[in-house]
Amino acid sequence: MANSSLIGCKVAYLSRSEAETGNAGQTPCGFFRAMQARGHIHNLSRNYNAAVADLTAAIRIDHNYAKAYYKRSRAYLALGDKVRSSTDFKRALKLDPNVEKD
Prior knowledge:
Layout: H1 16-21, H2 28-44, H3 48-61, H4 66-78, H5 82-95
Helix pairs in contact: 2-3, 2-4, 3-4, 4-5
């Protein structure tokens, strides 16, 4: 489960350069939500390398957010990286046994 300080955060809209440099002018909470949401969109668009990058940025902010690990595990699997996919999937399940149901 996400840290309580990150629950209900306002999503920040970032340009790619702001996201890459971390100069969003937003709280870490806003940056976290933006990276998590954009990573999910990249997964849906089959842009898996970008999904990994954005979800990794989200995980750096909140390393206890199971959904980010789960979504990154799906991206790694699509890229053929079964080892990293398995590692992230196991971490997601450890953090939230119901992560797949959300």
